[in-house]
Amino acid sequence: MNDGTMTGDQDGGAAQRFDVTMTVNGIERTASCEGRRNLVDFLRHDLHLTGSHVGCEHGVCGACTVLVDDHAVRGCLMLAVQAEGRRVETIEGLSPEDGPLSDLPRLFAEQYALQCGFCTPGILMTLREVIRDTPDAGETELREALSGNLCRCTGYQNIVDAALAALALMRDGGEGA
Amino acid sequence: MKPAPFRYHAPGAFDEALAMMGDLDNAKALAGGQSLMAMLNLRYAMPDHLVDLNGIEALRGISDGPDGIAIGAMTRQRVLERDSLLAMRAPIFAEALRHVGHLQTRNRGTIGGSLCHLDPAAELPVLAMLHDAVLRVRSAARGERSLDMAAFPAFYMTPSLEPDELLVGLSFMPWPEGTRHAFLEVARRHGDFAIVAVGCLVALDGKGAIDRAAIVLGGIGPAPIRLTAGEAMLRGERPGIELFRAVGAEAAGLEAMGDSAYSAGYRQHLAGVLVRRALQRACPSEAGVIS
Question: Which residues form the FAD-binding PCMH-type domain (chain B) (predicted)?
Answer without folding.
Answer: 1-177
